[in-house]
Amino acid sequence: MNERRRPNLPPSSAPGRRRRGGRARLRPGGRSRLLWPGLAAGAVLVLAGGLALKGVTEPAGRPADAAGAPPATETGGTEEARKGAPEKAEDGKRGAEKEKEKDKEAGAGEKPDPDSIPSSGPGTFATADGGGDRVGGSGRTLTYVVQVEDGLGIPAREVATEVERVLADERGWTADGKVGFRRVSGGASDFRVRLATAGTVDDICGQYGLDTGGEVNCNVGQDVMVNLKRWLLATQYYADDVTSYRTLIINHEVGHFLGHGHEGCPGAGRPAPVMMQQIKGLHGCRTNVWPYDADGRPITGPAVG
């Protein structure tokens, strides 16, 4: 996939790879990609966490099963094999349920009234204190801070706990055995995960020529910008599982920071890659929020320009 020409970064921003997901309008002089997390009413969106890519639509109806459940298959073979199949199927079902429960450990709680979510804030941030242990392989270690815009009433440490959970999971970006992460609370860091109101996300992403329209998450420079509305309400495919959608946000945008581009569905019935703009349609794939499966195999698809 060809590299796009990068806009000039603001002097105050640290350099970094600019990525984002979904559909967005570019302001004059800027180029980028964003992930549109669509509205829960079923419209557009990534902060996943996107761009002026090809528009797609998704048929109405209940979203596909989560990635943990294997595609349904007919049981065949000998009579002995058929007798053993129900037990194996039940084992697979229990395994999928355990994975789903693991994804929900943090507990997202009841979703708020959309009208109660502030659309703008002061643009200043509180950084989660403390720090975390290093997680991941033996290669490079990326440090990060977690910040929450002032006045949201959400403790930064609470958000940091969710981010740490995602980045430490064995199905996350550390599964390649090369990259590691460590949360810090001060000094220099490689990137920042920042939860902010739509207005503040628009302002920060707009400095790089991106029009996030009050709905979009983005990765610009060293910032993984998370739209508060998306964090609290999720999107149509994850309306009943906000925690999993938060996982998708972090994995998708951090994936962009690591240099991964957008991907498409690899085939009907297969899990959607985490770098797929799932809000724009699953195209036969099943929902999935992890870059690797439980066996350490990457979940990928064809590159999307």
Question: What Rg, in angstroms, do the CA atoms define?
Answer: 19 Å
- The count of helical stretches stands at 5
Largest β-sheet summary: 7 strands, mixed
> How many beta-strand segments?
9
Instruction: Give the overall average pLDDT.
Output: 74
Question: What structural class do the secondary elements suggest?
Answer: alpha/beta
Unreliable spans are 1-90, 103-108
User: What are the secondary-structure elements, in order, as H or E?
Assistant: EHEEEHEEHEEEHH
The percent range for strand residues is: 5-15%
Could you describe the 3D structure shown?
By secondary structure, the chain is α/β, with parallel strands linked by helices. It is 23% helix and 12% strand. The chain has five helices and nine strands. It has helices at 79-103, 156-168, 198-206, 228-233, 242-257; strands at residues 25-26, 125-127, 135-136, 141-149, 180-183, 191-196, 210-211, 218-220, 223-227. The strands form two sheets. Strands 2, 3, 4, 5, 6, 8 and 9 form a seven-stranded mixed sheet that branches. β4 (141-149), α2 and β5 form a beta-alpha-beta unit. The longest helix has 25 residues, at 79-103. The radius of gyration is 19 Å and the shape is globular. It starts with 24 loop residues before the first strand and ends in a 48-residue tail after the last helix. Residues 1-90 and 103-108 have low confidence and may be disordered.
